[in-house]
Amino acid sequence: MSIPTPHISATSADQIAKTVLMPGDPLRAKYIADNFLTDVTQFNETRGMLGYTGYYKGKRVSVMGSGMGIPSSMIYYNELFQFYDVDTIIRVGTAGSMQKDVKLHDIVIASAACSESSINDNLFGNIHFSSTPDFDLLLQAYEKSNELGYTTHCGQVHSSDQFYNDMPKEVFENLQKYGVLCVEMESYGLFMAARKHGKRGLGIFTISDSMVENVADSAENRQTSYTNMMELALEVAPE
Question: Signal peptide: which range, if any (predicted)?
Fold first, then answer.
């Protein structure tokens, strides 16, 4: 395969920065570009998956939607890493809390991701490979988040294959018991794609709802708010 790819219309690798922030929602990508970046150019609109490159405090950064779920997002992760010479992808998204002390609007940084996804089947025999982010980037993000005064949690997340998931009560309670902080839908795939290509991946989330307290944010807030998470990702984005 060569560029442009079937899913990204950029005609050269230099249209995309070495670091790409990736929310699931392409409109959140547009919001980040409109509100945080300067000298912005659009490099993708294929299939409605908006992508932009601009500057944050003089640092060149791209932002692009990934769609929802591991199958959609891994198309973009793999194409960006393999064909556009991207070094780092930072997922910026929403998540549902699975712990009492992880509250609405708190930030979670994933130290690992577990999943029922079958993407690793037949890769490692009977070994259950642990999907983890780049440690140096993780440490930098955690320290920067605390420096900025954000309420931040660092730990394992669950990347679910289903948004409407009828998870058995026993499974949910065991995930809680073993310290899984929240549920989202893409990071397991990002960390695997980054490991495959020898690149860097990181997952940063804003808690948009709680599976413990049964509270949830509005659709508008999910699309256009959560600026602390966006700022944090931009601050630690490598040049």
Answer: none
